[in-house]
């Protein structure tokens, strides 16, 4: 019916406006296709639904190389909360289903971007109108957004909503605080710590016993296509030719690697603290190209002072 109405409009429109309207229609259709594609992947936006038992949820389509840990951090929720919302999951190391239910708390949604903050640091969230919905129910019952703000944000001229209509509600916080690790561990475990490359481990303990070392959470980056072998890394601040201790708090894996040099300026994003070899990444149990680690190392005085 919609396409019929559009066709009639074109038929009744003077020829000089026909091309203009068709162009508008094509551009709108393409934009809609891109929007639906983003909705299917759920990577550039979150689509909130109201679950009778769980409350607000987002159905996340699991992409290649994603882990429960990375998904949980991406949405700012605990892994245990995701496991509880997905009965098929029994633990964090289980293979993930194609779609995960992500529970969203009310205080995670913000309705106005804070001053001096970039929108790129926040994940847009949307809601799709159902049969029983009206403007008041969506704005004041489901969400805590002023009705006039919801109307202005979505260019609504009246109180009527259409079934299937998509409303931009607000944003989820995606600029979460750095990972906090106490004593280099995220969880208590009776299992012995897994250490790769014992020779470098012994050298690390012998050379740096009694030394003052940097001990902090950092972001590691690696490429699955890397073909070189060996336990080595480039680091932003560690002393070249020194040994670094790297822990993956997710799996309690520890790797010792040689620092072959500092990361060249402007070659990688500033958030990346170390570029690790494929062998180091595999020993740490890495799945994502970028992930959080806990490291200890001897700093390069020149680099550390920058």
What tags apply to this protein structure?
306 residues, alpha/beta, 9 helices, elongated, disordered N terminus
Structure description:
- This protein has 306 residues and is of the alpha/beta class.
- It folds into 3 domains: 2-40; 42-173, no CATH class; 194-304, Barwin-like endoglucanases.
- It has 9 helices and 13 strands.
- The protein has a 6-stranded mixed β-sheet. It has a 6-stranded mixed beta barrel with strand order 8-12-9-11-10-13.
- The radius of gyration is 25 Å and the shape is elongated.
What percentage of residues falls in helices of 4 or more residues? 25-40%
Compute the separation of the termini in Å: 64 Å
Mind summarizing the main beta sheet? 6 strands, mixed
Portion in beta strands: 25-35%
Order of helices and strands: HHEEHHEEEHHEEHEEEEEHEH
The number of distinct helices, counting runs of at least 4 residues, comes to 9
Count of beta strands: 13
Oligomeric status: single chain
**Spatial strand sequence of the major β-sheet:** 3-2-1-5-6-4
Q: Which consecutive residue ranges, at least 5 long each, have pLDDT under 50?
A: 1-42, 175-193, 302-306
Shape, please? elongated
Overall number of structural domains: 3
Radius of gyration equals 25 Å
Structural class: alpha/beta
Mean pLDDT: 76
């Amino acid at each position: 019916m919609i396409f019929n109405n559009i066709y009639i409009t074109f038929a009744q429109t003077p020829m000089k406006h026909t091309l203009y309207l068709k162009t508008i229609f094509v551009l709108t259709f393409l934009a809609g296709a891109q929007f639906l594609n983003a909705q299917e992947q759920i990577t550039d936006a979150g689509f909130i639904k109201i679950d009778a038992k769980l409350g607000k949820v987002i159905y996340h389509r699991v992409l290649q190389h994603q882990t429960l840990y990375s998904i949980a951090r991406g949405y700012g929720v605990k892994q245990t909360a995701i496991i509880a919302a997905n009965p098929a999951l029994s633990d964090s190391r289980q293979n993930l289903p194609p779609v995960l239910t992500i529970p969203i708390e009310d205080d995670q949604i913000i309705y106005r971007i804070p001053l001096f903050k970039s929108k790129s640091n926040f994940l847009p969230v949307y809601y799709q109108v159902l049969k029983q919905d009206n403007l008041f129910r969506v704005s004041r019952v489901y969400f805590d957004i002023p009705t006039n703000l919801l109307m202005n944000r979505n260019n609504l001229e009246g109180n009527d909503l259409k079934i299937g209509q998509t409303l931009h509600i607000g944003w989820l916080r995606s600029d979460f605080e750095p990972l906090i690790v106490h004593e280099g561990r995220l969880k208590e475990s009776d299992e012995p710590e897994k250490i790769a490359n014992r020779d470098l481990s012994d050298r690390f303990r012998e050379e740096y016993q009694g030394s003052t070392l940097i001990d902090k959470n950092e972001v590691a980056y690696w490429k699955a296509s890397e073909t070189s072998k060996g336990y080595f890394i480039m680091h932003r601040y560690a002393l070249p030719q020194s040994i670094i201790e790297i822990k993956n708090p997710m799996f309690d894996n520890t790797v010792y690697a040689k620092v072959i040099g500092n990361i060249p300026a402007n070659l990688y994003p500033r958030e990346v603290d170390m570029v690790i070899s494929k062998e180091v990444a595999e020993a740490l149990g890495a799945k994502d190209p970028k992930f959080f680690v806990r490291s200890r190392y001897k700093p390069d005085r020149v680099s550390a002072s920058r």
